[in-house]
Amino acid sequence: MADSRTWMKTTLVGWGSPSETFGYTDASKVCDHANEGVAVSFQVQEDCSITHGNAFCAAVTGTSPYWKLQLWPMNSVSGDGQPDMSGTVLAETAAFQGSAEAGWPYTKLLKTAFVAPYAATAGQTLCLMVNYSSGTIDASNSCTWKYESGRSMYRAGVGGYLESYSGSATVWYGNGTYQPVMTVTTDKSYDLGGYPLLGDANYYMGVSGYRYANKITVPAGGDIEMHVVGLQINGSISNGTDSIIIGAWDSDGDELIADNTISTLVSVGQQMGDIGFYLGAAEIYFKETLTMTSGNSYYLGIENPGSSSLYGAFKVFDDWTADCNRSWPMGANIEAAVYLPFGGGWTDSWAGSGSGKTRFLINPIVSDIHGTASGGSAKPSTTLTMGVFG
After folding, report:
1. Does residue 362 sit within a domain?
2. d(Cα 100, Cα 89) in Å, to the nearest integer?
3. Cα-based distances in Å from 385 to 354, 369, 388
4. How far, in Å, CA of 187 to CA of 320, rounded?
């Protein structure tokens, strides 16, 4: 099959979207008035059943009031970014009290079932809210709800986080350039809403032979073949005269393509001698094209070729629990892995500083994707989709 990179370059997203970069900002709201809350607006991708709401409690002061997670439509007539609460709520949970973790990471995922699931249709724009229900609520009895983790630099879509105003009436304010964390659970293989994460972290590569990679498993049975020509890396890699290796390896740590050693001296990033930018992204290309096929796993990332001072400040997302993976592109088919030399091998499902799975902000750059030959033909048997892998 002819190489189609002259008319198509696709970034296979393991986080966010191909155009996004990420600057981490952690934000929560103390809700100590009855008309305060947080929310996320989102668009429904296909007909589905919405079964749960997922909110993140960062702290409880005194005795928690009772709350409900509610699903409302967005007002498309005169709402100006406001939920349409003029009718009947589409779905809601039973009243519950907030709770947070006693130790790090403090924030707790509260996955709560709706009393009755909501049958959503493709194209709808909906809003999941944390709303006060009952109980004493004041400065001594409140909950702190996490509503966003990081600025998408800079992309705004239909969805975004909303924050209510404490005043004589509830007015919702929003920002679509941050990553909202609240989600709803669907009967599909993915969730809708935001991207739940603890945040990002920088990792440093001061030991020769260490590799930091995303393990990507191409789903079996999909008859997929794709050609990867490089990586999009969020963050920066720097420190004077050092070099990095960009490559792809198998489960034994053996090279799948020839390693490409790149000196940081050739790059102009945030500073002379930097690759990339801590609030941006860089594209780095392989020496050879990597072929990835259905049912196989590949490790794509960066290796320290021998420097004791290499500063690899590329970023990694920390998830709370395995449930968080349902909201991320590629779901459970991507995970961070670290390779230790001298017989150490790969550590899969690497948790970083978090308590759940994580992933590096490293996305494969795909030159083409098609079906593999079967029965004498090589007709395409796959459809590229955004956000859903497999």
Report:
1. yes
2. 27
3. 29, 12, 6
4. 21
Contact 40, 160 (CB under 8 A): yes
DSSP-assigned beta bridge partners for residue 28: 146
Neighbouring residues of 9: CB distance < 8 A, sequence distance ≥ 6: 365, 366, 367
* Cα 60 to Cα 42: distance, rounded to the nearest angstrom: 27
389 in any annotated domain: no
Q: 53 — phi, psi (to 5°)?
A: -110, 145
Same domain (yes/no): 33, 152: yes
* One domain for residues 169 and 239: no
Overall number of domains in the chain: 2
CATH, residue 138: 2.60.120
**Domain membership of residue 335 as a residue range:** 10-16+201-371
> Tell me, what's the pLDDT at 382?
39
Do 81 and 153 belong together in one domain? Answer: yes
Q: Residue 32's closest CA among 144, 181, 147?
A: 144
* Placement of tokens 């930018």 in the chain: 277
What torsion, rounded to 10 degrees, do the Cα atoms 154, 158, 161, 165 define?
Answer: 120
**Could you tell me the pTM of the whole model?**
0.75
Q: Do 182 and 223 fall into the same domain? A: no
Q: What is the mean pLDDT of residues 36-56?
A: 92
Q: Which of 238-252, 338-352, 375-389 has the lowest mean pLDDT?
A: 375-389
DSSP strand pairing (66-73 vs 38-43): unpaired
> What is the per-residue pLDDT across 260-284, written as a single tens digit (0 to 9) for each?
887 766 665 555 556 766 666 778 8
Other residues' Cβ atoms within 10 Å of the Cβ of residue 296: 14
Question: Do 54 and 109 touch, CB atoms closer than 8 A?
Answer: yes
